[in-house]
Design a protein that fits this description.
Elements lengths: L5 E12 L8 E12 L3 E5 L6 H9 L6 E6 L2 E2 L4 H6 L1 E4 L11 H11 L9 H7 L15 H13 L5 E5 L7 H16 L3 E6 L2 H7 L2 E6 L2 E7 H7 L2 E8 L14 E4 L5 E6 L5 H10 L4 E7 L3 H12 L1
Parallel strand pairs: 3-8, 3-9, 6-7, 7-8
Antiparallel strand pairs: 1-2, 1-4, 4-5, 9-10, 11-13, 11-14, 12-13
Helix pairs in contact: 3-5
Bound molecules: adenosine-5'-diphosphate (ADP) and magnesium ion.
Amino acid sequence: MTDPEYAIEAIGLEKVYRASGKLPEMRALKGIDLKIKRGSMFGLLGPNGAGKSTFINILAGLVTKTSGTAKIWGLDIDKHPRSSRAAIGVVNQEITMDPFFTPLQALELQAGYYGVPKAERRSMEILTAVGLDDKKDAYVRQLSGGMKRRLMVAKALVHNPPVLILDEPTAGVDVELRRSLWAYVRELHANGTTIILTTHYLEEAEELCDEIAIISHGEVLAQEPTPQLLSRLDQRLLKITPREPLSAIPESLAQLNAELSDDGVLNITFRSSETGIGRLLERVREAGISVADLATEQPNLEDVFVAMTTETA
Ligand code: ADP
Ligand code: MG
């Protein structure tokens, strides 16, 4: 088949987890529409509980959807359960692996599971790529957390899928490993693999992804190329510590979105696309305030969600 325009296409995807034991019924996905272009490096960004893993697990065949449709590499997951899943490699959020196999055995088993003929297997090549070649014969239980994570990435790649999905791959991973993992993922992407990753860190999605969808409470709030999304989220906070404590915000600054905090810091919220820090500082000085210290803050994910939800409300 010819390469599809979209690596993933979900329409109206819903998931209701039935109540069980003490857990009430949970509408984890409330009609997800998401198209992820072939060749993209796509970030699915949302806070804990947003539904990211549910979405991924439906694609992976680990969770049964309640309604809606999904296509992987142009193949409907209901009509073509096997071939659609052969098009993705999924690295799950939880580390799961059999402690009694060596990395090499684990990869060979996985390749067998996907029906990759012996002659076409690349187990050693993949182990080398993720930096585990010297651990090929170690028992998995002897590997560090970071090594296990890398082995999971390796396992997801044995059948050479055109789409690699990573569900919160940096959770519990140290900085060093994070860097090498991303370097490898970038390399895969450069060689044509479509990459989808979930994260609750805006910075991570911002740094890695060319397109980002924001998901919250089972709904997609936005899907845009990263630069566009960021420019819409250009709210900044300028924190000014005056040399002399202020009793009130000066009259001349009344038009600014300024607040005086209990600890005497003047907080000015502004849009970086509209005002520069230089111009703001000028106005502060013109108001007779002598600046002892200043800092700026970018919005965190919570602010982003608030901005998005109030915009659509
Ligand atoms: P995320 O990956 O974005 O953190 P999840 O998809 O794991 O979100 O969870 C979405 C919601 O569904 C959460 O409220 C979570 O508690 C609930 N949930 C996830 N898995 C199950 C399950 N197996 N049974 C019941 N509720 C679940
Ligand atoms: Mg999750």
